[in-house]
Model the fold of this input.
Amino acid sequence: MGVDYYKVLQVDKKASDDDLKKAYRKLAMKWHPDKNPNNKKDAEAKFKQISEAYEVLSDPQKRQIYDQYGEEGLKGQVPPPGGSGGSTTFYSGDIPTSFHFNPRNANDIFAEFFGSSSPFSNMRGGTGPGGMRFSSGIFGDDFFGSSFGNNEGINVNMNNRQMKAQAIERSLPCSLEELYKGTTKKMKISREIADASGKTIPVEEIITIDVKPGWKKGTKITFPEKGNEQPNVIPADLVFIIDEKPHPIFTRDGNDLVTTQKISLSEALTGYTCHINTLDGRTLNIPINGIISPNYEEVVRNEGMPVPKDPSKKGNLRIKFDIRFPNRLTGEQKTGIKRLLGQ
Done:
């Protein structure tokens, strides 16, 4: 059956990235070998297993393969029908992908979270980490307006072990229309790479970001190791985070779209037809024949945002109403209203 990585991290199968990070921090600190000198052998095994579980479940590709094939399939031990062993071929849609998982060093993963692979030895009076600090500002002023600054670097332990620079995160603003239909954005980045002699040279690259229909604010798109190349440090991952621009008509609530129509008291009492332009350019005409109360909400099914995991499905369109009451009525109008309402 293989190892149950979800059980190792004590999370359920719907755990988010934040859930995984929280679980890893707690368990890695508990089982770090330096914190368990009287039980070091068992702690090392547990610590390694925790790190491997986090590495797999925090990576969308590895997690997808693990969920489908388990640990054996992830490590190439159980090839699918027709496979010949070795590197395992898995399928995503119609496109085969060759994949073989080799776990990273557990200390490297720990150091990415806590800045050192041996924090407990330092607290007990051991030699503190002598460090180098590398800037990881990589974008040219033509796109982002400024570099990332010094707070995006990494302290690197001088212990002959490469450490990976802290991920570089940048906002990617998208309109609601782009998130509804999907879009492709091309970004120019400037960074430094090392040549064969170890000398760094500036280069520019164009990267393509495919924004899928239904993606939400906070969705992350990662380009591995696109930071500056520097001695003794693995380049940082470049991470774009989807941000949603304000829309003049709609707000988003999960997969639902919400809009508010301003109507008169007369329309609220006698009937009203909503005319709404959708995000893909259609016009919806929605008649409401009943009385519209201040808290009434009309729901139009399947006219919301695409569901990210299945864009053929959509949320709902929810129409709220802002009823404009008159500021004053004449005596004659009051009498007429009372007569009409039977009072």
